[in-house]
Amino acid sequence: MTEKWYAIYTKPRWEKKVSETLSLMKLESYCPLNKVHRQWSDRKKVVMEPLFTSYVFVRVTEKQHAEIKKVNGVLSLVTWLGKPAVIKDHEIETIKQFLSAHNDVKLEKAQVIISDSVQITSGALTGKEGIVVSVKNRSAVVALPTLGYIMFAELEKTSLKKTAVA
Q1: CATH topology of domain 103-164
Q2: What is the CATH number of domain 4-87?
Q3: If you ran DSSP here, which 8-state letter would residue 44 be given?
């Protein structure tokens, strides 16, 4: 059996605790953390918040699913068509690279719309290919279709090269 990435649905605000518990169980887990600037009345602070609320990713075999469901804070595995949804390795890598290059990343639930295929020609994601969902002013949109989300970050339009006609 090969290990694959799966998304776990957690109790609200339990993402970090679940990820830590999975790591203690010697399971590879990933809780994407977003560096966010928060303003209070008396101070500003940079805090690390989970990018996907109530989601943690884990790399396991199918036999380990029952073990994961027993972890305190885990509600269920995210399913697609009645089976646990498999997240592609390159999508996990894209999330990691995106978060290492950008702060204050925003998420928006996506209705996947197919448009131009592009290759990123500069920046942290150089060489990566993706589907352009939209480009507004300097905001580039990177689609992660398996997760059903899109991430926004400030990129120059000139850093995108069209690779195919849609």
Answers
A1: SH3 type barrels. (2.30.30)
A2: 3.30.70.940
A3: E
Domain ranges of the chain: 4-87, 103-164
**Cβ(138)–Cβ(155) below 8 Å:** yes
CA-to-CA distance for 49 and 69, rounded, in angstroms? 23
Q: How far apart are CA 124 and CA 94, in angstroms?
A: 10
Q: 4-8, 79-83, 145-149: which range is least confident on average?
A: 145-149
Contact partners, residue 128, CB within 8 Å, separation at least 6: 94, 97, 119, 120
The terminus-to-terminus CA distance of the chain in angstroms comes to 37
Query: Mean pLDDT over all residues of the chain?
Result: 81
CB 73 within 8 A of CB 3: no
Per-residue DSSP letter, 165: -
Backbone angles phi, psi at 114, to 5 degrees: -85, 130
> Phi-psi bin for 74: left (phi > 0), alpha (psi -120 to 50), beta?
beta
Q: How far apart are CA 77 and CA 22, in angstroms?
A: 14
pLDDT: is 160 or 39 the higher one? 39
- Token pair of 160, please? 């995108």
Q: Alpha-carbon distance 101 to 122, whole Å?
A: 12
